[in-house]
Amino acid sequence: MSDTGEPYLSYLLRLWVVQNQEGRVWRCSVEDVQTGERQGFPSLESLCDFLRRETGLVPDGDFKNDGCGP
């Protein structure tokens, strides 16, 4: 969450498909609009885990890597 305590996050999201040994998979990155910091993710599931932590829906280290669903 933002350091100002405001409940607002803004990211530029990039998604692309790559071919690997297991077939076609999605890769992702987000760029924090305010700071310009970028983070890459090897899967949609890891992106969802990041968003859960950033929003405080799940504390750090307390989640299952099971996708975006509930």
Task: Describe the model.
The protein is α+β, with helices and mostly antiparallel strands and 70 residues long. The chain has 1 helix and 3 strands. The chain has a 3-stranded antiparallel sheet. A hairpin with a 2-residue loop joins strand 1 and strand 2. The two termini are 20 Å apart. The mean pLDDT is 84.
Main sheet record: 3 strands, antiparallel
Q: What proportion of the residues is helical, as a percent range? A: 10-25%
Spell the H/E element sequence: EEEH
**Approximate strand percentage:** 25-35%
Tally of DSSP helical segments: 1
Query: Which regions are unreliable across 5 or more consecutive residues at pLDDT < 50?
Result: none
Mean pLDDT: 84
Instruction: Please give the alpha-carbon distance between the first and last residues.
Output: 20 Å
Cα shape: flat
In which order are the strands of the major sheet placed?
1-2-3
Task: Tell me briefly what this model is.
This protein has one helix and three strands; from the N terminus they run E-E-E-H.
List keywords for this structure.
alpha+beta; three-stranded antiparallel beta sheet; 1 helix; 3 strands; flat
Topology:
Blueprint: E1 11-20, E2 23-32, E3 38-41, H1 44-55
Antiparallel strand pairs: 1-2, 2-3
